[in-house]
Amino acid sequence: MCTTAKPASPNFPGFKVVNDIISIENEGQLADVIASAAGPLSIVGHGTKRGFGRPVTLPCTVSLGGFAGITAYEPAELVLDAKVGTRVADVTALLAQSRQELAFEPPDLGPLLGEAADSGSIGGAIACNLAGPRRIKAGGARDHLLGFSAVSGRGEIFKAGGRVVKNVTGYDLCKLLAGSFGTLAVMTTMSLKVLPAPEKIRTLLLFGLDRPAAWEAMTKALSSGHEVSAAAYVPAVLIGSLAEPLLGSGAAVTALRLEGPPRSVQDRMTALRAMLGGKTEELHTSNSRAFWRAIGDVRPFVGDSRAVWRISVPPQGGLDLAAAVDAIPGAEIFFDWGGGLAWAAVPDTGQASADIIRAGVVTAGGGHATLVRATPATRMAVAPFQPLPPALAALEARIKQTFDPKNILNPGRMWES
Question: What residue spans define the domains of the chain?
Fold first, then answer.
């Protein structure tokens, strides 16, 4: 039963509660619900990432999906303000009208997790700190969050940051809350940095390279002056789930993306092809967009029953990580971020090969492995997020105590409570 410790504020007497889900329509309601909560609360937007992290089964869920809308957009200032329940698809559609975009390319993990496509919220993308293939050039989601308003676990409304970078002073709480999965505070509105969309996109495809050759090509391209904005390696067995022009290619693909003014992209592409040689092909703007969206959305693993790991390692450690995953029967792996981000699908049995995966991270030079998709039983048996060293775990516990002393917000979502 979803209950509160005290009657709702007279200002917000009509909480909409259906099947123990409280739908929030404004920030004041949210503060009142949190302040009066008699027990822990599960915080969701549109619920597309409920399968990400440890299963949270709580008697009361607070839904921010209805707290949506773009409150301000100034194309000339490259800034957009939105309520957290606003769908990412709505944000990108509005930005496209002014030929602008969210440069961190928030991926849509809904289909990977068995949810509808294009239904995730901007609040969820920031709370999970999700970034797509342009991460290597544009930075992560947290780097594009300029400011926000939020409600702490005490039920107190507070703000941090600002609408322009020069006004962001004091403690950088944007970096802290992005990636906290709603366990520290619940963001309600946010200011985001946006950037002009590229005029032209081309993707160079190198066919048939084995992993060492692919890593050499990606390293050479990213170290050059050709301003590569994305680099990925996909084995032949996974190619069919990406872009239509690749169907039937029958070979592994190493992909390198160039963006910018048409003449610049053309000249850089010519130079890049000459530098790398080999059997190559190009994808132009529309097919490039489809290809890189499929990479970011982890399309190769949508629709199967395997557990999926998101693994971040130093790019040059990717080969060692791949060798570890190869030892798991029925496993497959592909790479983004120039070899620094791996997506691995493994049979969802026992602990989803957690010991092998995390040992592979150590061999690769360090990093972290996150279990993004698995059955609830597996996500309870295995720590979905990389276990922290004792000192960092203690620091995180103190931060949690500061923001949410009663352990109300999404307890157990990231770490066992």
Answer: 1-197+388-417, 200-296, 299-381
Count CB atoms within 10 A of the CB of residue 293.
17
Cα–Cα distance, 50 to 114 (Å, whole number): 10
**Highest CATH level, class, for 299-381:** alpha beta
Angle at 46 between CA 3 and CA 410, to 5 degrees: 45
Packing angle of the helix pair 211-223, 262-276 (nearest 10 deg):
140
pLDDT of residue 416: 76
Q: What pLDDT, in 10s, does the model give residues 37-68?
A: 888 999 999 989 988 988 888 888 999 999 99
Q: Does domain 200-296 have CATH number 3.30.70.2190?
A: yes
Task: For tokens 């496209």, name the residue.
Answer: 96
Residue 126, both tokens: 């920031």
93-126 tens-digit pLDDT: 999 999 999 999 999 999 999 999 999 999 999 9
Contact (CB, 8 A) for 133 and 107: no
CA distances for 414 relative to 256, 306, 370, angstroms: 34, 21, 10
Q: How far apart are CA 86 and CA 16, in angstroms?
A: 19
Question: Residue 166 has what pLDDT?
Answer: 53
Q: What's the topology of domain 1-197+388-417?
A: 3.30.465
Q: Give the other-Cβ count within 10 Å of 6's Cβ.
A: 10
What's the pLDDT at 8? 44
Over residues 136-171, the pLDDT tens digits come to 999 999 999 999 999 999 999 999 987 765 555 556
Instruction: Tell me which amino acid residue 368 is.
Output: H
By the 8 A CB rule, do 3 and 38 touch? Answer: yes
Residues 6+ away with beta carbon under 8 Å from 210? 252
**pTM here?**
0.92
